[in-house]
Design goal:
Layout: E1 3-10, E2 19-24, H1 32-42, E3 47-51, E4 60-65, E5 70-71, H2 75-90, E6 96-105, E7 108-117, E8 122-127, E9 133-134, H3 141-147, E10 163-167, E11 169-175, H4 179-184, H5 189-196, E12 204-208, E13 218-224, E14 229-232, H6 236-250, E15 255-263, E16 271-280, E17 283-301
Parallel strand pairs: 2-3, 4-6, 11-12, 13-15
Antiparallel strand pairs: 1-2, 1-17, 3-4, 4-5, 6-7, 7-8, 8-17, 9-10, 10-11, 12-13, 13-14, 15-16, 16-17
């Protein structure tokens, strides 16, 4: 008997764009080593394993693996899995169908508001389970530039300097001056650990203010070579942590801020991530991540 799985392209409204995601819908009986091996077999940036919920108020328990490590939380798996589970519940819809999907992840409970649409990509927005927080100091700009095959003059814009924030996994955030510098960034593995640390979460999220579309606020690239991800087309957990970067450097005012992030354009997998940040009484109150996804394949695992 096979285990059903699906492939979705996430943070896009069309197939063969965005960030592909594998979701194994029937994961009971799989141990950690098997899940890690299956994630390596799919060789996508993340694979999700769905288990029956322990709490009857939840939709599912999920675990998330890259090809080399397990993650406590990730954004594009949350968006894609919530849309898939809503689709499993309601099937083909006429017009629009709202759904609430509650996922228990290692980081905690993540609530997702899903909108299914007839003949169109579905949309999911979730409440980030923890607010972003600083994750320690970065190294100097010269080391960072070398690790990204850039010149030190490419690093930074306005008042933005390299920093580290986290929501679950930490990220090194590296501002660069324009799209040209962003497109030239390329990991130099001989210098990577010296610039970004020696653990498995020494990822670099490189971003600039210049964008392809006037509707976007930033364009970004994310490199995670130590986790088996040469470059990620769309990284929701990094976008969640990026809320801390934006608030710190841009001094967000009271109210809700809608920020669209472009990612994956350089690698031919254009992705759009919607980031919302609520500021109340001068402090960050809530962060939400949203995006669309398209179901592109279904199959069975004989494991």
């Amino acid at each position: 008997m096979g285990r059903r799985y699906a492939i979705l392209d996430v943070f896009t409204n069309k197939a063969l764009a965005g960030n592909p995601l594998a979701v194994v819908l029937e994961s009971e009986g799989l141990d950690d080593a098997q899940m890690q091996a299956i994630a390596k077999e799919f060789n996508l940036s993340e694979t999700v394993f769905v288990f029956p919920p322990e709490n009857p108020g939840h939709s599912a328990n999920v675990r998330i693996f890259t090809p080399s490590v397990e993650l406590p939380f990730a954004g594009h798996p949350t968006v894609g899995t919530s849309i898939l589970l809503a689709t499993e519940r309601f099937g083909d819809v006429e017009g629009e169908q709202d759904a609430m999907v509650v996922l228990k992840q290692q980081i905690g409970v993540v609530r997702c508001a899903v909108v299914l649409r007839a003949n169109a990509a579905a949309f999911s927005e979730f409440d980030v389970p923890k607010l972003p927080e600083p994750a320690g100091p970065t190294h100097n700009n010269e080391l960072i530039a070398e690790a990204l095959s850039l010149d030190p003059t490419d690093i930074g814009f306005e008042n933005h300097d390299p920093c580290r924030f986290k929501v679950g996994s930490p990220f090194n955030f590296v501002p660069v001056r324009n799209l040209d510098a962003l497109s030239r960034a390329k990991p130099d593995m001989a210098r990577w650990k010296a610039a970004f640390g020696h653990d498995t979460h020494n990822d670099a999220y490189v971003y600039c203010r210049e964008t392809r579309s006037h509707d976007s606020a930033f364009q970004a690239r994310m490199f995670a070579p130590e986790m088996g991800i040469a470059e990620d087309p769309a990284t929701g957990s990094a976008a969640a942590a990026f809320a801390g970067v934006v608030n710190f450097y841009d001094g967000l005012t009271e109210g809700t801020h809608h920020i669209r992030i472009e990612q994956g354009f350089v690698m031919g997998r254009p992705s759009l991530i919607d980031l919302e940040i609520d500021i109340e009484h001068g402090k960050m109150h809530a962060v939400r991540i949203g995006g669309q996804a398209k179901l592109v394949a279904r199959g069975e695992l004989y494991i």
